[in-house]
Amino acid sequence: MRKVNLKDIPEQERTSPKGTFHKFVKDISIALGRDRDSLDLAKRHPFDLALARIRKGKSFCPYHSHSAESELYLVVSGRGSIRDKDGSTIVTAGDAFFFGPGEAHQLTNAGEEDFVYYVIADNPRGDSCFYPDSGKFAVLKEGTAEVIVRGTETDYFDGEE
């Protein structure tokens, strides 16, 4: 059995240059030995678990959808505003919600205290993200982490022949 305690997992902080997006994450799966690059499910794990925290007035990340990933959320404390294709919905402690591939979403703290939740994701290899507000994509590039690109729609064979 692999075991960790949340108090022993370091909280990673990431903020955008202007501070609109600011998050704190305890990556529980990594603490339990998950290897992001492995194809071996014993090392990769079939899903990931993280504890996320967003401060007042901040968002976790821009409005986006995943090409292949599914995410399940469980709110621990605070008040969040969840943006999706239908608008925004307020969530509070005990609420659970789900986004499948292609379902754009964004999580924002809508309260006075920190918005804290668990996210469980299946993190399939080859997942990419689309950002509808900016028209950008986050894609994997061999030998590197993700690359952010902005492109225009084109024919499948454009530039190939």
Which keywords apply here?
161 residues; mainly beta; six-stranded antiparallel β-sheet; 13 strands
What does the model show?
There is one protein chain. This protein is mainly beta and 161 residues long. It has one domain (6-125): Jelly Rolls, CATH 2.60.120. The chain contains two helices and 13 strands, in the order ββααβββββββββββ. The longest helix is centred in the N-terminal third of the chain and has 4 residues, at 28-31.
- What's the number of structural domains? 1
Strand runs, count: 13
Distance between the termini: 53 Å
- State which percent range the strand residues make up: 35-45%
| Helix and strand run | EEHHEEEEEEEEEEE
CATH architecture: Sandwich
Rg: 17 Å
Q: For the report, how would you describe the main beta sheet?
A: 6 strands, antiparallel
Number of helices: 2
Q: Identify the overall geometry.
A: globular
Overall pLDDT confidence: 90
- Helix % is under 10%
Structural class: mainly beta
What is the CATH H-level superfamily? Jelly Rolls
Oligomeric state of shown chains:
single chain
Strand sequence of the main sheet, in spatial order?
A: 1-2-3-10-5-8
